[in-house]
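User: I'm putting together notes for a lab meeting next week and I want to include a structural view of one of the chains we've been expressing. I don't have a solved structure, so I'd like a prediction I can at least talk through. The sequence is below, exactly as it appears in our construct file.
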Amino acid sequence: QVQLVESGGGLVQAGGSLRLSCVGSGRTFSMYAMGWFRQAPGKEREIVATINWSGSTYYTDSVKGRFTISRDNAKNAVNLQMNSLKPEDTAVYYCAAAPTSTLNIRSSGVQYWGKGTLVTVSS
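Assistant: Thanks for the context. Below is the predicted structure for the 123-residue chain, given as structure tokens.
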């Protein structure tokens, strides 16, 4: 059974930091693009950041300069370091894996999803 399991969400004040981690099991994700999406209440799920097998990255404009994505293929893991958090970053964050080298992934292109971890940023 293929799984993506997230950890690291929580409550933080504006300006603070959190680190999200995602570990995959059941298959090797080294040739997959992996990344993070988020969904705020009443809004559609949106891409946050992705990283492909070669280490190339993509960030949505609203998180550029604040978030950093990294991966460890040996551990089947992808991480998201989130700094200078803002209340508008509040959302459920989902780990995702897609069988592509493309970075700007649509939700429909994701093959595997984690169950999500809640990030709440208070003002």
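A couple of points you could mention at the meeting. The chain is about 0% helix and 50% strand. The CA atoms of residues 20 and 101 lie 22 Å apart.

User: Perfect, that's what I needed.
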